[in-house]
Amino acid sequence: MASIKKIGVFTSGGDAPGMNACVRAVVRTGIYLGKQVVGIHQGYQGMIDKKFINMDARSVRNIIQLGGTVLKTARCAEFRTPEGREKAYKNLVEEGIDALVPIGGDGTFTGAEFLSREFGIPVICVPGTIDNDLYGSDFTLGYDTATNTVIEAIDKIRDTAASHDRLFFVEVMGRDSGCIALHAGVAGGAEAILLPEKETAIDDLIVKLEEGALSKKSSCIVIIAEGDKNGGAYNVAKRVKEKFDFYDIKVTILGHLQRGGTPSSFDRVLGSRMGYAAVKALIAGETRKMVGLKGNMIQLTDLEEAIHNHSFKLEEDLLEMATILSI
Amino acid sequence: MASIKKIGVFTSGGDAPGMNACVRAVVRTGIYLGKQVVGIHQGYQGMIDKKFINMDARSVRNIIQLGGTVLKTARCAEFRTPEGREKAYKNLVEEGIDALVPIGGDGTFTGAEFLSREFGIPVICVPGTIDNDLYGSDFTLGYDTATNTVIEAIDKIRDTAASHDRLFFVEVMGRDSGCIALHAGVAGGAEAILLPEKETAIDDLIVKLEEGALSKKSSCIVIIAEGDKNGGAYNVAKRVKEKFDFYDIKVTILGHLQRGGTPSSFDRVLGSRMGYAAVKALIAGETRKMVGLKGNMIQLTDLEEAIHNHSFKLEEDLLEMATILSI
Amino acid sequence: MASIKKIGVFTSGGDAPGMNACVRAVVRTGIYLGKQVVGIHQGYQGMIDKKFINMDARSVRNIIQLGGTVLKTARCAEFRTPEGREKAYKNLVEEGIDALVPIGGDGTFTGAEFLSREFGIPVICVPGTIDNDLYGSDFTLGYDTATNTVIEAIDKIRDTAASHDRLFFVEVMGRDSGCIALHAGVAGGAEAILLPEKETAIDDLIVKLEEGALSKKSSCIVIIAEGDKNGGAYNVAKRVKEKFDFYDIKVTILGHLQRGGTPSSFDRVLGSRMGYAAVKALIAGETRKMVGLKGNMIQLTDLEEAIHNHSFKLEEDLLEMATILSI
Amino acid sequence: MASIKKIGVFTSGGDAPGMNACVRAVVRTGIYLGKQVVGIHQGYQGMIDKKFINMDARSVRNIIQLGGTVLKTARCAEFRTPEGREKAYKNLVEEGIDALVPIGGDGTFTGAEFLSREFGIPVICVPGTIDNDLYGSDFTLGYDTATNTVIEAIDKIRDTAASHDRLFFVEVMGRDSGCIALHAGVAGGAEAILLPEKETAIDDLIVKLEEGALSKKSSCIVIIAEGDKNGGAYNVAKRVKEKFDFYDIKVTILGHLQRGGTPSSFDRVLGSRMGYAAVKALIAGETRKMVGLKGNMIQLTDLEEAIHNHSFKLEEDLLEMATILSI
């Protein structure tokens, strides 16, 4: 394989805190190791629209602490067609980009896998998504920050819940993964946690809430992942209300504020390590891999496995612990 | 009038950050000036249920930084009846409480006004509500903290909005008052602000958003007070979407997290000053007044005027400025 | 006077949170009203070095939430000489700048006053300094944010102080003004507050601390403005230690982190209002004035009075209150 | 071994955020599993002074989000003597406490190891210290929060550094361990990081700073662990100043505010898991172990090894990466 000369870096899919730390790491590591680096704005759409920007070390100054992504992100229907991808690849070649660091979730990876398979361009992906739902990394970029954002909100809600003897249903992000809900539920001292991976009968929830009421809890907070099978916080609240009126009941949907915010120390270090490792892996001749954190070490996973393996299971022991700790 | 011996302090209505700073000030000022102080839990309900707790200086230690109210709050239907109030007053007499510092909004004040008029007990009220909608004080307790909570959320939403070229509709508290919406809208750099006090035609809003799109704004945030006449953020979003699809559109309802959180420096100083002034006013023989901040001075306003005067108007100049600053 | 065509805006002296909100307001208000606006980098030094940047509405996008100043600031010895000022003015004329909005403290104002007096260029100044020590405005830009930064630090210190039964001496900014120390001391529930404006005998401080120990306080925090006559936190700690050893004693100097940070809602609104008002005043033909907030209204004060009048006095009543509330 | 009936839990040594989450977990897990739980105030001193408090599930309500430790902590000279330990043990027996969960650092563990060896009482220790310097756990309790506190301070300092073209030396905690300095340095984008584990020649530091100046860095931040061999931030600043004056130089000592603050999500989950696991281990008959997090699993390590093994080494690769990422 010919030596890499110019690395393209981009963010795609939902933005996640820490992406900027990762972009900064890709740019500076690449430059330090004698490569050129190009920022591609708006992901795959930007490849098609030729939104290429040459980066130098100063291009990424003072961005490590910023939420969102300075390279922006976008959905791109055209890229899902063979013609779209061909156009994108032609533009990359024209620009001289001969390797890619895509940062995003499984949709991003799927695009990168296509590009690499169809045209042979080396890709090393970075898992950037708040959902923490990718095989091959203990943590995805943005997850720690999002969880902290959720518990700051829960702390605020607890203040008012405890002042009023109220029951709050708080809906957090996670269509397929209950990771944010579970960890934020433990950290927020939630009385119950409802997850996509595990069905919760409303009657069982009510029993749990009644026990709390009997043991003189002055307030209750129930965390509900958006993907919970009962249909979200409003539906759960409605059904609980029909049978249980010990507390005044309120609902909060945290929504998109979970995506933003200045990244935590953990996510900045993680983004830096992943971006650094991705460039090193590309230069070492690797391709079609995802960088990930396992234990305290950076490891590579086959991209296809990262995309298709959904074998990581819910931390059932944490869920059991959460039940015990909220007595 | 006989000298006051024992002051009752309570919080009622919606909780607001800074209430604890105020309770602390009432307790310690009262004790310092040789009075006894009793905390009444859960407001008027607590009077009826005899939830009286003797306070000493250490009872309020380490609470100045806490959100919510350590005295708790509750709605109380019984107190709205003459019999309920008589029971409450009987309990106050039995407990030896001969003066009151109620902390809350106009509902709280109305209850206090009744008690005072019907039974002659001296009351000095403190305006504690995040809405900043009371005559007689430039600021109510909790408003500054709530506004900061809103802009922290807007900052996070802006991160993700700018990464995706999105248009967000963010609904904030304020049924009758657009104060939070207006100030958070200015501070958050919102592209438009919809308020209860001023009807906004959806078509005018769309014109404004189109201008933003033309001037290459990468994202837009519209702040909507819950009392806006168009029917809240979901309705506005739906109606805008029908005619304007330049941006991807999202909705966030901030909800009750606006009530909680550790109070800002401003609210802690304000709560301290108001609690301190309320006790001094009671001891000086005042009654049926609300303490308020006008300019940088604490002033007393007749309670009836604080309850019934709604003459403060929207800061139209700020709204005009907001339009100019978001070009 | 000829109509203004091109407004120069700059920040000078110590940076303060909210300066960016003010720069944004000056730029957009100027443009909205048909003027050109030039950002001058690094204040007076930038005038001499011709660091002029034409601003459009998008130049100030997404800066309202940033700490520091995007226009940067610098000290400039050369500008203190008549030759330096002449050079600066010549450059302004060459650039076509015919009016100025300087943002800073009394040093900044003095420079502006000279320029205006010597060369007749209209200036409207904005008080941007965390010290809140300028006549003509109830609040200076950055003061509210700095005070919140201090109380967040005090809250953290209180956690560890209360866990260990410790006495902390915390030094905060304020060479001549005890405003931050006083308000943060009240808001942080400090046991004592030492200020430049009022000498505190160490023996009196020890008496106060002994009373706290007797009344079973588990920790004590003493706030000391850097300009206190006893010589700063280390000196006070040393002298207290010689006579009072009930608690383990620690010292914290908060230092420059008090200057930075994302501005509070209050400072963003204040910066916006002041920048907006400054441009409107210039266009209305005003000069040699400072915009300020009095009560809830923007008012103009003669620049010379803002510079030379030091008649605002310490809020003695707040200091007395602080003593009572910390029993 | 007889079945455990009453578990004593205490915190000792320096306080750390997350200790309260751990205490809550110990109490509720113990109660849920049919044991009694006693909180021992002020660690070993409290054992000697009989500061025992019976805990029920409600005793630990609403503490998961609090910094510091509700059980308080203290140093205890008497416990270092055999007589002191005998007295402590006698009091434990009298109180019926037949197992212990000590939370703290290596000093705490040493005390527990003595107690257990001399008197046979089962102990399972939890690593609670912000320094992250214990063998047997990837993370100690409080480290994540402390690192976040440091980067929040660095972000603020960066605002003002970048506005003024300044060079800041920021001293962070870590007498023997550079863990906080290294991670906060990476996360804060520091230009250089000085650690106890690795000597840095001042001349090499100056070369690095000169390179930064040449590459047009507008500001520099150097993080220095308090245990760095050059003698702390003031000394380093002084020596750099003698040879390098491109930037204005300032020093900040973050000090004890690094200990406090509401714990991060990570530390709350970690504290919960560790407390839960400690009780389960005690009940399972384990003793003289430390619970720790390895990868994503809770594991037990022999207490003596946790105390005496200092074989974990500096993450040299992270330090190298930090150098590259700050070009």
Question: Describe it for me?
Answer:
The structure is a homotetramer of 327-residue chains. Chain A has 327 residues and is an alpha/beta fold. The first copy, chain A, folds into 2 domains: 6-142 and 263-308, Rossmann fold; 146-259, Rossmann fold (3-Layer(aba) Sandwich). In chain A, 42% of the residues lie in helices and 18% in strands. Chain A is built from 11 helices and 11 strands. In chain A, the strands form 2 sheets. A 7-stranded mixed β-sheet of chain A has the order 3-2-1-4-5-10-11, with helices on both faces. Chain A has a 4-stranded parallel β-sheet with strand order 7-8-6-9, with helices on both faces. In chain A, helix 1 links the parallel strand 1 and strand 2. In chain A, helix 1 runs parallel beside helix 9 (265-283) and helix 6 (179-187) packs parallel to helix 11 (316-325). The radius of gyration of chain A is 22 Å and the shape is elongated. The mean pLDDT of chain A is 95. Chains in contact: A-B, A-D, B-C, C-D. Chains A and D meet through helix 1, helix 5, helix 6, helix 9 and helix 11 of A and helix 1, helix 5, helix 6, helix 9 and helix 11 of D.
Summary of the model, kept short:
Chains A, B, C, D: Pathway: Carbohydrate degradation; glycolysis; D-glyceraldehyde 3-phosphate and glycerone phosphate from D-glucose: step 3/4. The structure is a homotetramer of 327-residue chains. Chain A has 327 residues and is α/β, with parallel strands linked by helices.
